[in-house]
Amino acid sequence: MTKALILEQQDGLTVASLRDISAEQLPAGNVTVDVNWSSINYKDALAVTGKGKIIRDFPMVPGIDFAGTVRASEDPRFQAGQNVLLTGWGVGETHWGGLAEQARVNGDWLIPLPAGLDQRKAMIIGTAGFTAMLCVMALEDGGITPESGDILVTGASGGVGSTAVALLHALGYTVTAVSGRQQNAEYLRSIGANSVIERERFNEPARALEKQLWAGAIDVAGGDMLAKIIAQMHYNATVAACGLAGGYQLPTTVMPFILRNVRLQGVDSVMTPAARRAEAWKRLAEILPESFYRLATTEISLAEVPKVAAELLNNTVTGRVIVRIR
Prior knowledge:
Distance between the termini: 13 Å
Oligomer: single chain
Order of helices and strands: EEEHEEEEHEHEHEEHEHEHHEHE
Strand content: 25-35%
Radius of gyration: 20 Å
Shape: globular
Structural class: alpha/beta
Helix content: 25-40%
Number of domains: 2
CATH superfamily of the largest domain: NAD(P)-binding Rossmann-like Domain
Largest sheet: 7 strands, mixed
CATH class of the largest domain: Alpha Beta
CATH topology of the largest domain: Rossmann fold
CATH architecture of the largest domain: 3-Layer(aba) Sandwich
Number of strands: 15
Number of helices: 9
């Protein structure tokens, strides 16, 4: 028997409970992994609290990422005892995920633990950090270099934003962090932000074009904030959009795209192809400074997940939350 966080629906509400499950209850898959570390991302918090329509089939084990050791494998690419990690692919949404002591998954979804990372560090990065790296790569694909100018990062106190700030700083970019919690300004500077501005600066509706301020941006908010940012971009700028915490609609015009040649690049981490995925993880292992793992991390137990998931949605969690499974 192994422990798992099980989500069920009762009277239309999502209820989370820590239970013992047997190996026979695990879903189909050709690799079984002893999970040692997982994390809580925004999507996990929505799933655990039931405040987002993330899960439609119950019961479900949430957890969209995990790191662990292969227990048994029918996939020749993986052997018992090998360290692996997983992010995305619908795990924790449509297939039982990482907030359990054991997971059974498709080998196509796993990657070997990259050199330079242990399992704990891999989950400090997790889906949030992986997404941040994809966003940085999107800026690079758009031709944005450290010499291009200031890079704006929204939601900078969260998991994606914190990792993006640290990555950009390590690569030599000048970073302006946006946060709704000014008490986190010192933390954001400690991980690499050159300046920190308040989220309220983006509250007013965007004009079609505004003063050019940013050479690039990584945005987790969407909605009105993203529209405002697009209107403030330099000529030839790139915006990497990876979230919709502030809304899924985009009240903007075509003028920044046509008159300033602005590129809006969507970033998805769930179905990222294997080659791009491997490149991103390799770079994460190489670029992130050791200090990031210490400054940006809160560690909790599996039993604490429901409480911390609610806190994350209430915007009271800073940086990354990792879950010690064993």
